[in-house]
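fyi for ur records
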Amino acid sequence: MTAESTVPSPGGQPREYGFSPVSVIPPREAGGGFRFPAGQRTAARRASWLPPAAADAVAVLATGQAFAEIQRHPLFVVALLFGVVALNARASLYRPAPVPALLDELPAVCARIATAWCALAAVIAAFAPDGTLSARTLILGCAAQSAISCAGRGTVQWRRRRVLVLRPRAALVIGPAGTAQRVAAAFLRHPSCGVRPVGVVADQPTGFDGLPVLTTGEEVQRALIQNSVRTVLVVEPRGERGPMLRALAEAGCELWAVDADSPSYDREGRHTLAGFSCRRLSILRRRTGVGKRFLDVAVSGTLLLLVSPLLLVCAAVLRLTDGPGVVFRQERIGKDGQPFTLLKFRTHRPVDAHEAATRWSVANEQEMSRFCQFLRRTSLDELLQLLNVLWGDMSLVGPRPERPYFVAKFSQTYPGYAARHRMQTGITGLAQVHGLRGDTSIEDRCRFDNAYIDNWSLWQDICILLRTVAALVRPTGS
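which gave:
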């Protein structure tokens, strides 16, 4: 739980990455009005996981038939098959890469085959000492299975690369016109990527030569249908065109974030396409989001029942000491840039609506009464936001919501600020449990909030809630 103070870090500088100013509330035509026509949906062509799995299965069966020593253990082949498939699936070796390459996955495939053989040989030695596999059989078996499996996988990947070149996927490039045209030209120069850009989606057309520039939702829809677009390359912050990207994803398009101007040193989940560092975007609500919503409803509902007497006491004391107007309502920006009304106990009175929307709210303002300072210091003024969580406006854990005035300001100043709005805002978050409350760096908050979203898990939410509770019970408060 946090105080509402949000002071920019002194070192904050405007963006210099070639992006247009970010607004998390996109124009209606560009985002909110974009809908893919019913009955005309495309489907991203995804490579199946069955061919490489079949190659691994054939390798296991062929190796089992080649060694008489293995044939004495009929369950060995079955266990080996399930073990290798499970290990490869765990390592995402059945998730096709954008550009298949056998040499990239060769060490991982061979290592898991050797692991499965050694584990099963140890089990046989422990429970059936008379049938222990010899070192020669173990080494030759691993080598034979690795060779057959890699040969099969190599054939599958050669076929996939050939399909990519002969039938490349039509793509749209979304971003500032100049940068998007440069990215599109690079992909067109490297057809082996299997991606063929057919248009650029930008706010305004420019004088650059190249692909046609699409500036309206209708033009994007038309290009999507006429070219059977299945891939979208995004070279700008996701928060700027969140609604359009969500509609494209729902239409069956595969989304890729492209680092067009600077390399990424975070290699996890990244691939190289046409020399650019790319990562797959997943902006559709994941199934695990059901678990997050269940946690929100269960915890917020239970807490509201438990703390309702405390809420009544706080409201009564606040009414007696500071007069009418106990509940403070303020417009905040939530997921996908959608506004909602945030509820809090009133701890100070703005002069007018303009001041409420644009003035920094400092947690230790001297003009507050002692009881209001107590509410701020203990974060009791935030408890009414449990109603926002129960209604679905917020989540228990997520980036803290801010007022529209500051969202527009920070989105233009701090890289990644707009991207925070791809997930539901929250009462507490990863930034808050790392001490980023009150007068702390907005840049640091952006980094922690986006790291939370990129690595979200239900267990991480539970851990953040536990750490928040621990912070609240300390003598120093929240």
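The first helix runs from residue 28 to 32. thats all i got for now
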